[in-house]
Design a protein that fits this description.
Elements lengths: L1 E9 L2 E9 L4 E10 L11 H5 L4 H32 L3 E9 L8 H5 L2 H22 L3 E6 L5 H7 L2 H5 L5 H13 L12
Parallel strand pairs: 1-4, 4-5
Antiparallel strand pairs: 1-2, 2-3
Helix pairs in contact: 2-4
Length: about 190
């Protein structure tokens, strides 16, 4: 049976939901909070904030190391999720990753010079890590602007919380909506339509 994943990222972690069905009849297969920042790596949860205090060459190196570490963690978590779903006879073919406004960021020096851009860059980094891991896992990836989630769709999945129990936070609701939005793109088990 075809399934899709949805992600909503934060600094260092993401809410993940695996679903089948439709907005009218959704079925949550799995939900998890995945860690995508190594707590042993200094500054990994907020690498741009940490890097802003360093000389530029060290800042570049720190951000590259944090990105590499976060990619590895995301790929490991995604591989575990896919293995669990496959063991249940589910095939995942696509995922939706919620993103922000999508405004392009300046080069690193410009980012580190602006506190607002530091926040934006960190959000973008963790979302990009999820997109990268999904593509590495051979999933069709669709990025969805969070502001494009419509209230009616979110209202339709709200009652799922009573069926599946806590936690049923806004993060899981939004990730579920993202997954349900990409699910129709699949045709047949695990196959992406052309």
């Amino acid at each position: 049976m075809r399934a899709a994943l949805g992600f909503r990222a934060h600094s260092g972690w993401a809410a993940m939901v695996a679903v089948t069905g439709t907005f009218r009849a959704p079925h949550v297969l799995e939900r998890r909070r995945i860690v995508i920042a190594d707590p042993e790596l200094p500054g990994s949860k907020q690498p741009y904030h940490y890097a802003a205090e360093l000389p530029f060459p060290r800042a570049q190196a720190l951000i590259a190391k944090a990105m590499e570490s976060s990619r590895a963690l995301a790929l490991e978590a995604l591989s575990a999720i896919l293995a669990t779903l496959r063991s249940q006879g589910r095939e995942v073919g696509a995922c939706g990753v919620l993103v922000g406004s999508g405004k392009p960021l300046p080069p690193l020096e410009g980012i580190l010079a602006s506190h607002a851009l530091i926040h934006t860059a960190e959000g973008a980094m963790f979302r990009d890590v999820l997109v990268w891991a999904a593509r590495e896992s051979r999933l069709q990836v669709t990025t969805i602007r969070e502001k494009e989630l419509d209230a009616a769709s979110l209202q339709a999945i709200n009652p799922l919380g009573k069926q599946i129990g806590p936690p049923w936070t806004q993060d899981y609701k939004f990730a579920t909506a993202a997954a349900l939005m990409v699910l129709p793109q699949l045709s047949g088990p695990g196959r992406v339509s052309a």
